[in-house]
Amino acid sequence: MSTASTYPRLRHIAAATAVAALACLTVSCSAASGPDTARSAPAAEKTAGKETAAAETAADATQEFTGPRVRDAFAGLQTTLVAPCADCGDNLDRVHLELGNLDRAMRKDPQGSSHFAEPLELIGKLNETLGQDTSTENLRTHQKELFDTRDRINTWMQGHPEDYR
């Protein structure tokens, strides 16, 4: 293929891309301007489908509860499993923070705190051990209990995949 024949093709591709981008902008702008704006049927169906899905998702979220979700809090806790420095102060603080987030999420979950009795009990025992002192020094002193709690909760959650998927 010669260079001379490649450039016109590139111009056609660029022009087609520009037209497609403008068409997308026109559809999104016309969707925002009102229901009586003329739109093509496929674009209108796509927009209506997206709006319906967004409304259903919002409705589901408000019906369930507002607050941290167990799956999100558990994901945060799992990130501490691969920390590059297991006994660094920042990691100890992070594990403690993520356990607290998971505790709050489990207590607010629609299934009720009784569903999460074992992990909540483990977090409660850790909190009793730590007392009011959540300083890095105290977390370092109780590092074994902190990591054991995290690991046991991780094991429990792995046995309950419906709670985090």
Distance, first to last CA: 51 Å
**Which bin fits the share of residues in helices?**
over 70%
Average predicted confidence as pLDDT: 73
Strand content: under 5%
* Helix-strand pattern: HHHHHHH
Q: Report the count of strand segments.
A: 0
Helical segment count: 7
Largest sheet: none
**Shape type:** globular
Look at the helices and sheets and give the structural class: mainly alpha
Radius of gyration: 26 Å
Task: Please summarize what this structure is.
The protein has seven helices and no strands. It has helices spanning 3-33, 41-64, 70-79, 89-108, 117-130, 136-141, 143-158.
Summarize the helices and strands and which ones pair or pack.
Blueprint: H1 3-33, H2 41-64, H3 70-79, H4 89-108, H5 117-130, H6 136-141, H7 143-158
Helix pairs in contact: 3-4, 4-7, 5-7
Structure description:
This protein is mostly helical and 165 residues long. 73% of the residues lie in helices and 0% in strands. It contains 7 helices and no strands. About 29% of the residues have low confidence.
